[in-house]
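=== Structure Prediction Worksheet ===
Name of assembly: unnamed complex
Input type: mixed (protein and possibly other molecules)
Chain count: two
Listed entries:
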Amino acid sequence: MVKFADRILKIPDDPLNEIMKLSSDRDVISFSLGSPSKEAYPTQFIINATNKLLTEDPVSILSYGLQEGYVPLRKNFIEHIAKKRNINAKLENVLITTGATQGIELVSQTFIQDGDVVLVESPTFFAALPVFKKYGATVIPVKMDYEGIDLNDLETKLKKYNPKLLYIIPTFQNPTGISLSKERRIDICELADKYKTVILEDDPYYDLRFIGEPVLPIKSFDKYDNVIYLSSFSKILAPGLRVGVIVANKEIVEKLVLAKSGADTNTSLLSQGICSEFLESGFYESHLTEIFPLYLNRLNKMVDCIEQFFPENIQMIKPEGGLFIWLGLPNKIDTQALLQISSQKYKVSYVPGSIFFINQSECKNYIRLNFSSNDESTIELGMKRLSMVFKDYISGLSF
Amino acid sequence: MVKFADRILKIPDDPLNEIMKLSSDRDVISFSLGSPSKEAYPTQFIINATNKLLTEDPVSILSYGLQEGYVPLRKNFIEHIAKKRNINAKLENVLITTGATQGIELVSQTFIQDGDVVLVESPTFFAALPVFKKYGATVIPVKMDYEGIDLNDLETKLKKYNPKLLYIIPTFQNPTGISLSKERRIDICELADKYKTVILEDDPYYDLRFIGEPVLPIKSFDKYDNVIYLSSFSKILAPGLRVGVIVANKEIVEKLVLAKSGADTNTSLLSQGICSEFLESGFYESHLTEIFPLYLNRLNKMVDCIEQFFPENIQMIKPEGGLFIWLGLPNKIDTQALLQISSQKYKVSYVPGSIFFINQSECKNYIRLNFSSNDESTIELGMKRLSMVFKDYISGLSF
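=== Predicted Assembly ===
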C-alpha cells in the first residue's frame, strides 16, 4: 500500500547486516569489521576532553552550531591534518560531516542526477555504491593493478562515459590495501581536468601507515581545484563519534552546506569538540605513535598465519598500513557461499570479496580480512579456523 | 564549470543564515532562535552521563553502532516517552536520527519523487520546505485557523492533489504556537487513510506544555498505522547533541534504515547514550519540572511586554507551550524589509513571518518571537526596542 520513492527501491539490503548478524555470536572471531582496535580507544582522553568542553563553554557545545562545522575543529583540521598532507585549505574550504559516510552522501546529493555515471575502482568500498545509485548514477568499474587504479582503463572510461565523478580510495584502499603511486596521483589530476570529471578522494586510512614512506593525497596535487577530499576520525579516534571532514573548493562547499543543512543541521558538537581537542592537544600524534606497534604486530601476525596455515597457491597483498588484508583463495572457492558455515560451524567470519564488485560474480574466491580488531592470539586462533574452512572445503570433507 | 545536480539548485540560500548573521553582533538581543534556554542546559548531568557511559562500556559507545540506533535509547524512548503519549511501539518501530532534521530528510528520500505533492500547514517550519523540494516535491499549503489545520481545506487538497505526504506540527506549531484539537487529530487519521496519504507528524515541542491539558499526538490515534512520528531531544535536552527519533510501522522503518545507512551509518553513540541516560535516570521528568517555571515566566513576560509596549491593533496568539509567539503587526509593516535596520540600529532580531509561507508575499506583517532563550530583563529590553522599531516606522520618523 505504501508507495515508496524509486530511489529507495534501488538500494539492496545491506550485505554487511547479514555479515554482522553472522558475527554477533560471541564465540565467532570476526575479521569483518573496519574498526580501530577496541583496546586502542583513548577512553580517558575522551572523558577528559568532554569534561573540559562542557566546563569551559557548555553553551557552544550544547546549542545549535554552524552547518559548516565547529570553527575550532575546522581550524585544527587545517593546522594539524591538512598542512601535513600538503593540502591547501582555508576555513571556507572545510565542512564537517557526520562521518565520512555523510561526505559521500552529501557529494552524491549535490552532483549526481539520473543518468550520470560514477567511475569507481574495482573492487571498491561496497557501502558507497548504493548511495551513488540512490541518486540516479550508473556505476562503472575501473580496473586496478598492484599500483592502484589502471590509468589506461581510466582514460578509456573517462572518454567513453563522460562521468560526473571518479570515486577513489588511493591510500590503503578498501578492500585491497593497495596504495596508488605518486605518479598516478599526479596523472589522475590531469586526466580528470582533461575530461572535466570531479574526483572524490576518500582517504580515511592516510595516517595508518606502519611501513614505508607516505605518499601525499591526490588533493595535494590538485592544481585544478577539482578534488573533493574526504577525511575521517573513525579509523584513528573512534567511529562511534561520527565525525568526518570534507575539503573542497569554495563553490562546491557552499552547495554541500545546503545539502548538509537539510541532512542534519550540524554534526554533534560534543563529537566535534572532542575531535578538535584530539588535534589541538597533540594527542593525535602521540596516539598514532602508541597504536602503530600494536597494529603492525597484528598485521604481521595475520600475514604469518596466512603463510603458515594457508595453501601456497593463494594471492596476498601485504599492505603497508590501513586495516585490511585482501586475500585471493583458489579459484574454486566461493567465499560468499561459505560465509554461513564459516561463521556458524567454524566460528570465524570475514567479508566475502564479491560484495566489493559491481558485477558480484567477480572474485568470488577473495576475502577481506581486518587485522586491527583482534589481539594476536585471537588472530592466530581465528586464522587457524579460517584455514580449516577452506581446507575442509577443498578436500570435500564437510560439504 | 562544475555541473551540480538539479536537486541542489532547487535549494535557495538558507534564510536563517542571513538572520543569524544579523543576530551575531553581541549587542543584538535575538528572539530568532528555536533553542531551549541556555541556562537550562543540564551540563553537569551530561558530564556525569558521559563519564558513566565511557567508564562502564566504552567499546559500545566508541565503535560503530546499529543503523537503527542504540538499543538502550530505543527501549528507554518506548518506556519513558512513547508510552506516556499513548504511542504503541516495539523496538522494530523506532529509528534514532541525527536530530529530527534528519527525520524529515530520511522520510523525504524514502517517499518523495519528482512530481509528488506534499501538503503542509500554512505557515509551516521553513527548513522542511527545501528538503521536500530537493527530492522533487511540489509543496501545497493548507489553511490553518486557531485550532490548527483546516480540515475542509485539507480534504479539498487531499482530493485534488493526491499527495504523498501530509507534513504537520500539531502541538505548539512552529511558527504559530497553535495546538491542533483532539477532534481534528482523530479526523486527520481518517482523512489520510481515505486518501491514502502518509502523515508526517513532527512533534518536538510535545513536552513543553506549561498551561492546560496535554492533547495526545496524532500517532496515538493512528489505527491505520499510517503516521510517521518525529520526536527530538533538541528542545528539552540540548540541540548540539543532534538526537531525534522516528516511530513508524515496520515496513517504513526498514526502508528508512536503508536511507539512514547511506546518510551517516549511525547517530553519534555518545549523544545517543546521553539521551538514553537522560530518560532512564528519571532526570528527564525532573528537568521538565525545573524548566517549566523558567519558561512560563519568560512566556508571560513577553506577553506582558507585547500588551504593554505594542499598539492595540496587533494579533497575538498566546501559546500554552512550545518556544514561540506568533505576532501579527499592522498590515502596512513589512517585517522582512525591517529586519536589517531592526538588528543593526535597534539591536533586536526576530524571524520575519513571510519565510514560513510557500508564497512569501503572505503575512509580511507577522513575526515569530522566541521567548525561551533570554532572561526576563533581556526580554523586556528587547521588546521595548522592538516596539520602537515598529512605532518609528509607523510614525515615519526613521525611514
